[in-house]
Amino acid sequence: MNELGIMYSHTCNIECRHCGINSGPKNRDRMSLELAERIIDEAALITPAIRTIVFTGGEALVHPEDIETLVERAADLDFETRIVTNGFWGKHPEKGRRLLSRLRFAGLTSLNFSADKYHLEFQPASTLRSAITIARDMGYPITVSFTHNGPEDICDVFAELYGMDREELVRYDPDSTTMLEEFHAQSASKILVSGGRLVGMGRAAEYPEEHYLTSLNTFSYGACQEVGQRPVIYPDGTLQACCCAGGKLSTFAAGNVHREPLAEICARLPKRTHFRFINTFGPRRLYEVMAEARGLDVTAPHPSLCDLCVKATTGSAPATVDAILEDWAAAQLLSGKVKSGEAAGNPPGALRG
Question: How far apart are CA 16 and CA 59, in angstroms?
Answer without folding.
Answer: 12
